[in-house]
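Q: Here's a chain of 280 amino acids. Please give me its 3D structure as tokens.
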Amino acid sequence: MTAPLCDKPLLHTAFYQFVHLAQPDEVVSLLREMTAQHGLALTGSILIAPEGINGMLAGTAEVLDAIENTLVSEPRLNGYFAGMVFKRSACKTRPFFKMKVHLKAEIVPLGIAGVDATQTGINVSPQDWRELIAQPDVVVLDNRNSFEYRLGHFTNAVDPVVANFRDFPNYVLAHVDEWKAQGKKVAMYCTGGIRCEKTSAWMRDMDVPVYQLEGGILNYFKETPDAEKDWQGECFVFDNRVALDTKLQETPTELDAVYTGDLDAAWRLARAKRLARGGA
């Protein structure tokens, strides 16, 4: 078993993959076994559902190299996660205190049954995203919660004013006929890409072109040295670092500032502070 956290720099890795898992409970058992081998040197959470995997982990470069390699090449995982992309960023603050692997109904809860997120909209590379969102016939949708939008967003992006990802479909249904009548295309983005993939899969039959930023905001920051030209503010991340700038560096922003003005500010802040202390 790997020793507890040492004085080497910590890194954060985020990943997901939509893939049909026939026995997700068996995958959970395997991943609990595999992550436990690293002891306290690996922390974070992995969600497993019949539709795939969604994870955020923290550890040294060596530990993350090992677990990422395990996820993509361990024979007992039957190649489910082969080709999965990992997005790393630096840590000043320790992002997590525990290691958890959970079985869920969905890895990202859109709340609409039967969505096959392996069939998504059109991926747009970070290199092409700037040109796309500058076009006058494109509606740029922020596919995140309103408190995330307020902290930072792409220039000219629309805030659907949702408090939960499950609310996003209602916004789409209320506006899709208008977009079609105006000949609009939809370009969506979210933190790492997972929410957009699920939404664009659901929207495939709505007769409106749907584009999504490949790898999300974090990938855009990584691949675009002058991302600040298109991005206003910071990017909220769901761990103890709170927010990152366009250089993927942790900012001084504290939790109290994130939820100001949110209808659910009290319980969101209480929950976030409990998690920051290592609570469940």
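Q: Can you summarize the key feature?
A: The chain has two domains: 11-103, 122-276.
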